[in-house]
Structures are given as structure tokens and as C-alpha cells.
Design brief:
By secondary structure, the protein is mainly beta. The chain has a domain of 94 residues: Immunoglobulin-like (Sandwich), CATH 2.60.40.10. Helices cover 14% and strands 41% of the residues. The N and C termini lie far apart (85 Å). 18% of the residues are buried. The protein binds copper (II) ion (CU). The site of copper (II) ion has 5 residues, from loops.
Length: 135
């Protein structure tokens, strides 16, 4: 006589199927690159020097500039023991965002991490490596 499949095994099978479905349908998770939503990041002052700096961010969606996003820039040095520099970047023109109050406080290698929250709530990130010279 055939043994019935235990209820517990069935439950696990359903759970595994549900997880597999979620993974298959998952859009890129927050912070991942997304071909539909490229984010251009530029440092306006070149060469980069210790002191105030302006980071310009231009998020796009399907080739069009995006207004009404929230943009935040975090500057980190590539060595340990530094406090990150954090600045909000308000929109200064249609789809153009610039940091306010951002400054490099030490010469060396920096990475600018940009977090963009699109008006639809989607979060994406971009990064720019910058060498900062002394004053
Ligand atoms: Cu440093």
C-alpha cells in the first residue's frame, strides 16, 4: 500500500515553490544596477581638492531625466577610521541634483556613493571613485 505524503513535507514543498517564485519575479533589489534607471554622477570641480565640492547627480528613467527624486551622497575614504561625509542633493533644475554642504576633509582616495529614491519609491545607487589632492 502507498504511503500518503506527510503534511509536513507538502508544506515545505509549497514554501520552497513560493520562495522560488518570489526569486524568479524579483526586480533588481535596492542598490543594484538597473539598465532602465542609469544614474550619472559627476564632480563639478576638477581636479578635486580638499574643501567644499559639488556632486551633480542626474538620474534617468527610460532615457528621460527624473524630477522629484530624493538624492543623497555619501563620501567615504578608502581607508578605515574616517567618518563619512553625508550630503543631501536637492533638485536644482529638471532632473539635475546638486549636493549642498559637501566637502572633502582629507586628501586621498574617495568613493562617492549616491542613493536615489525615484518618485515611484524605487531605490537605486551609483558610485564614483575620486582622487582628492591636497589644497
Ligand atoms: Cu582619510
Amino acid at each position: 500500500m502507498r504511503r500518503p505524503v506527510p503534511r509536513r513535507a507538502l508544506r515545505w514543498l509549497l514554501l520552497a515553490l513560493a520562495v522560488a517564485t518570489l526569486v524568479a519575479c524579483d526586480p533588481p533589489s535596492d542598490g543594484e544596477a538597473d539598465a532602465r534607471r542609469p544614474i550619472a554622477v559627476a564632480l563639478l570641480e576638477r581636479p578635486a581638492r580638499v574643501g567644499p565640492a559639488t556632486v551633480e547627480v542626474r538620474p534617468a528613467l527610460d532615457g528621460a531625466p527624473v524630477s522629484g527624486a530624493r538624492v543623497r551622497v555619501v563620501g567615504d575614504m578608502t581607508h578605515a577610521g574616517m567618518v563619512p561625509v553625508v550630503a543631501e542633493a536637492p533638485e536644482v533644475g529638471a532632473g539635475v541634483y546638486r549636493t549642498e554642504g559637501f566637502a572633502f576633509d582629507m586628501a586621498g582616495d574617495w568613493v562617492l556613493s549616491v542613493d536615489v529614491t525615484y518618485p515611484d519609491g524605487t531605490e537605486r545607487a551609483a558610485a564614483l571613485a575620486v582622487f582628492v589632492g591636497g589644497r
